[in-house]
Amino acid sequence: MADQQTAVLGVWAGRSTFILAAAGSAVGLGNLWKFSFVTGEYGGGAFVLVYLVCIALIGIPIMMAETALGRQGRQSPMASMRKLARGSDVSRHWSLLGWMGVLTGFLILSFYSVIAGWALAFTWDLGVGNLRGFTGEQVGTHFDALVADPVKLTGWHTLFMVLIALVVARGVHKGLESSVRVIMPLLLVLLIVLLGYSMIATDQFGRALSFLFSLNFSTLTWEAVLAAMGQSFFALSLGMGAIMVYGAYMPNDASIGSAVMTVAILNSVIALVVGMVIFPIALANGVEPSAGPRLLFVSLPAAFGQMPGGQIFGTLFFMLVSLAALSSSISLIEPLVAWTVERFLMSRVVAATIVSALIWLMGMGTVFSFNVWSGEEYQCFGMTVFELLDFVTAKIMLPLGGLLTAIFASWIMKRSVIYKALNLSLARFNLWRALCRVIIPVCVCVMFAVSLYKALT
Ligand code: TRP
Question: Which residue of 228, 321, 354, 394 sits 20 to 30 Å from the alpha carbon of 29, by its own alpha carbon?
């Protein structure tokens, strides 16, 4: 059997590489775009609290489990799961978990790429000065014109998919680490500049803070709790094997606990700071917090239109959003590409091209959701293709994948094996195990049961 250190995929130089790659995967449209708009839709503070509780009690333990499984397996998620299942004397059908992850990644990326295309479009528009001096309302009209135009949307979606294919075809490891080293710090600096702007230049900072942080449980429905849970999986890239892939490259002596905590905290801080930037600007420009998927795209350009140097900051900001989306997309597509290479003995270039083309095709469903297929006759359960994909992935497939990962790591694997794999102190290990064995299954199953009940009644 292969020596653990010279595993199939090779091992990264140090702990920081895992952190960088996992952060590159985690930080993306989920924090920069989705977090604020779902917070806005579900009424603010109480939603944020439930989200943070989900990150702490569900997200972090599952992320540790996924990393540990990846490091034990040292292969693609499917192969790792098969190997670990064999090692634990249980059915090799556990490798289906890897398959479900590949499918989830495929579905998520199909709409993710369309939204990332919006970010590319805004990078361009801000860069050439198309939005100079626009008010919130004018940016709104501009946004509506963009999404109403299937040709333009297809163009930007295509460009983004081509970028992904190019990066993935060349192999993930070389580019990823160094680009994340540049993107993350720049993003943080820019967010702090923007935070300064929304504190000083809008008079809505206090109102926005109280929206984000004051607890009003009357707005908290079961639906909101489910959304918060789904968002915690989506934001941390959990439940589909992306983190398992990166765990497979982690050196044996690196501490999983502290690496995972670092990523989870960085990720949540970014989401909250983005919220503190977006809501004051939105309120000051007459954009409702419940504006939905357009929130980021309508509120920020209005602020850039008014602030000194806004054209440069605005272009840079949307460029960073696009790059962060790119590094997340790579973790969504990589398991599928790796498997295609393995299974069909293709070159990476061919595999990346075919897989990207298929995802691109699927993405057309999302492109049309905003225009030609937006009518009710094209909807399923009252949702457009885009909404349906978002619902099925974030609220069903990721929680299910995460649940199965937690169950496998805490109930199926031998205690001694997973204890060694996680390399935690005994007290922390016991806490992790209690969360994975009891709390996570109970929470996820209750959520599923309640949603099913609500859907049926
Ligand atoms: N976490 C990323 C974001 O917040 C999206 C993402 C990348 C993802 N890889 C994933 C979500 C795997 C779920 C599973 O934008």
Answer: 354
Structure tokens at 61: 């333990």
What CATH number is attached to the domain comprising 160?
A: 1.10.4160.10
333, 320 Cβ separation under 8 angstroms: no
Let me know: does 113 contact 365? Beta carbons within 8 Å: no
**Spatial separation of the C-alpha atoms in residues 105 and 398, rounded to whole Å:** 10
Ligand 1 center to residue 347 CA distance, Å?
Answer: 26
What is the number of domains present in the chain? 1
Q: Largest Cα–Cα distance in the chain?
A: 65
pLDDT in tens, 339-390: 888 889 899 899 999 999 999 999 999 999 999 999 999 998 899 999 999 9
Report pTM.
Answer: 0.94
Enter the tokens of residue 403.
């649940």
Task: Look at ligand 1, atom 10, and give the residue with the nearest C-alpha.
Answer: 237
What is the residue range of 85's domain? Answer: 4-456
Whether the Cβ atoms of residue 398 and residue 112 lie closer than 8 Å to each other = no
Pocket around ligand 1 at a 6 A CB cut-off = 25-26, 28-31, 108, 234-235, 237, 240, 242, 328, 331-332, 398
